[in-house]
Write a structure and sequence with these properties.
Shape: rod-shaped
Structural class: alpha+beta
Number of helices: 6
Order of helices and strands: HEEEEHHEEHHH
Radius of gyration: 52 Å
Largest sheet: 6 strands, antiparallel
Strand content: 15-25%
Distance between the termini: 162 Å
Length: 208
């Protein structure tokens, strides 16, 4: 009976150890950590990636906003694999001691991975700064330019085609009209009234 009981305990312990090995690793992907720098800059630290991880820090300070990004493979550090949350909390603690979270931090180091390979270090790959209201300024500039274009279009009057003036034909005082007048005068003088047209026609032929 004693041997059976000992065998039963060994089996139970073995199953417990197997269950611990099958537990999924703790992940920090997508996690965000908020903190303040030594000069009270309000910052957010966001984590992404799996084997090669990226860390983005965004801060706001006195009407300005700045950001920086880091990349590295902290997963090669055994301590990180055991508890990545402690690793990122240690980085946030170091950033809290700085007046500016991005200017003097080319490499992020932690005490738990001091002996890890250099590829485990998070190294700065990008940084930037801009006013907080830069987006609002750009929108206002776009609206102003649009309104000025509209005003310019309304101020330009459409010029239509000039009105067509009627053509006035000059009165022709030719030789033919003079002949007709003279022929009519002679017809009135020498012909009966009913024959004025016929006489003027005949006289016009002889005169013309």
């Amino acid at each position: 009976m004693k041997s059976f009981a000992l065998l039963f305990l060994v089996v139970i312990c073995g199953m417990g150890g197997l269950g611990q090995k099958l537990k999924p690793k703790k992940r920090s992907n997508g996690e965000e950590i908020n903190f303040r720098t030594k000069t009270k800059d309000v910052c957010t630290m966001s984590i992404s990636g799996d084997e090669e991880m990226k860390l983005r820090i965004e801060c706001k300070s006195q009407g300005m906003s700045y950001w920086c990004e880091f990349a590295g493979k902290p997963s090669v550090c055994r301590a990180f694999r055991k508890n990545p949350k402690i690793y990122w909390n240690q980085i946030a603690m170091e950033l809290r001691k700085l007046p500016h979270a991005c200017e003097s931090t080319q490499v992020l180091k932690t005490t738990m991975c001091q002996k890890a390979p250099t590829e485990a270090l998070m190294k700065q790959i990008a940084t930037g700064m801009e006013p907080e209201d830069l987006a609002n300024q750009e929108k206002s500039v776009q609206k102003t330019s649009t309104s000025m274009r509209g005003a310019g279009r309304s101020s330009v009057k459409k010029i239509g085609k000039p009105p067509m003036l009627p053509l006035i034909k000059p009165t022709q005082h030719g030789q033919g009209s003079e002949n007709e007048t003279e022929a009519m005068k002679l017809a009135r003088e020498h012909c009966w009234e009913s024959l004025h047209g016929f006489c003027s026609y005949i006289i016009g032929i002889f005169r013309g």
